[in-house]
Amino acid sequence: MKRIICLLVMVFALHTTGNACDCNITSIAKEVSRADDIFIGKVIAVKNWYVIFKIESYFKGFKLSNIIMVQLGSNNCSYRFNLGKTYIVYAYFIQNLEGIKSKILMTSVCTNTRVYNYADVIELKKFASEKKFN
Q1: How far apart are CA 45 and CA 123, in angstroms?
Q2: Residue-wise over 24-49: b if at least 16 C-beta within 10 A, else e?
Q3: pLDDT computed for residue 112 by the predictor
Q4: Is residue 89 within 8 Å of 70, Cβ to Cβ?
Q5: Which is nearest to 46 in space by CA: 80, 22, 9?
Q6: What sign does the dihedral 63-132-49-93 (CA atoms) show?
């Protein structure tokens, strides 16, 4: 019985560490230069593999719409958004194997994406100007 419990503990430990997200979050300055889209938005819908935001302001990227969709991944690196919350989102266009960018945006826990916090906006404004939607 002790062997079975020990084996189960080892399998669980390998399974949980094997799927852990391994990333280095870069500085906001570097992320501003690399991200395709940076915006502040409120989550108005969470669907199977995407989230819809009502954009409050943007720093980089889309300027034509006040709603944007960001694809969610299915692994441990996926950022989990909550309905009704406002976020600062650093988004990237998904690329295929040849490096060609699609029109689908995604983000992950490996970016500076986070729940809205005014102190984070102040830091972001050092590197990008904020534009409000009317």
Answers
A1: 28
A2: eeeebeebbeebebbbbbebeeeeee
A3: 92
A4: yes
A5: 80
A6: positive
Q: What is residue 25's DSSP assignment?
A: P
Q: Please, what sign has the CA dihedral across residues 54, 83, 45, 76?
A: positive
Measure the CA–CA gap between 115 and 79, rounded to whole angstroms.
11
If you count them, how many residues does the chain have? Answer: 134
CA 116 – CA 86 distance, rounded (Å): 5
pLDDT value at position 46?
A: 87
Segment 30-64, tens digit of pLDDT: 999 999 999 999 999 988 778 888 889 999 987 75
Q: What is the pTM of this model?
A: 0.77
Query: Dmax of the chain from CA atoms?
Result: 66
Write out pLDDT tens, residues 60-93: 987 756 567 776 655 678 888 999 999 999 998 8
Q: Which tokens in the block code for residue 60?
A: 């980089």
